[in-house]
């Protein structure tokens, strides 16, 4: 059965977030308020998973208990069944592609404008499938309002001390326990939410990510959803910044299945992570604007040159096929709501550097690294040399109001490295504080991992570092030489995992625009 998204919305009602211009003009179009001063309420409430475990008895709330039971049931189904675990996993990405794969498989968009809206629809149908499994297949009529929990890793306790909220930055406890805990606190069978602590399961184990790794503050302070097309170099905007951090960072730090696009949705915690990413977007939409005129493409972007020409397709709990078509920012009314749109929305300061896209032709460019640089468990220092031309041009740009952009090309890895890499400017090697003046941003390895990745030849990351250079103390950069670039592995980086993954970039440059 083919059911288009248009016919679905005709039966359910919809909140239209934007409409209007042809796609070619969409990004440059004027933007307007989303119309969601407060998202509509729903009987389906997505809750913080941390509140679904009894701290005294260890009992799991029914929402969590039946999610685990549904995952177990879905894993037992044939992978060609749309209600099966592998069918839903492979809709996002599939490790080994075959010519007979259904058209729904391996379609996840990363690094493009459809990233957030596609994942919103993907979670929506997955949530409906799990709910139907719980109610129909597992016979739990009382769970007809079941909704997907979210992993609130940027939660801060009262007072704002990140150390007090460390538990929120761990893999949620029920995903680390080997046995299911029922709502009475008793242990039952093996836990379908659990994965072993290794490169095939999860790398993070019971360790906690740092608050700077999960803080969405930088993204939440972006004003535009997407960069205007008429600008040669422009701020990347909310969607791309959020995708980079904390989205990619959490994928990489969780590691294992979560560490690459093709395997990520095989981890049951993936869905809670993306519910939180969608929650960030929902909160951002209450205060910001969205572009007008965006429409779903007739042919989705390809992950490989030999991929067939297909639209975005998703399946529902009855096996119905839904084509994403028409306005991008149109979604069913009252599909779900969140327990909170204020908790865990970012509290840290934002670095002076910021992610940008675009680069004018012929702009003065100076090499920082002109050959492949392999990253490891120790910091890498890139000293561009002592040439006066580049140093003078960059110093003049910083003083005159021109912009200096640091670009890494060909950022990629052979496998998930289980760590991100932090970029700093200046020669002060003791300054590795992501809250300090030398911090630029993260190099992440997720959609650029492995030979079959959508960006297997590597991604390009550009940061406007003008203000960073301006604020560096003299001991870090005097202006008489090219600025030093330092790439530092993140906390708890493991040498063996990094060596196997071989994270690297092709070259790095400064450009004055």
TrEMBL record:
Reported EC number(s) for this entry are 1.14.18.1
- Mind listing the UniProt keywords for this protein, alphabetically? Copper, Metal-binding, Oxidoreductase
PROSITE patterns listed in its UniProt record:
TAT (PS51318), TYROSINASE_1 (PS00497), TYROSINASE_2 (PS00498)
| Tyrosinase copper-binding domain location | 110-127, 267-278
- One Gene Ontology MF term: metal ion binding
Q: Does the keyword Metal-binding apply?
A: yes
* Keyword set includes Hydrolase: no
Short name of one Pfam family for this protein?
Tyrosinase
**What name does the UniProt record give this protein?**
Tyrosinase
What organism does this protein naturally occur in? Nocardiopsis sinuspersici
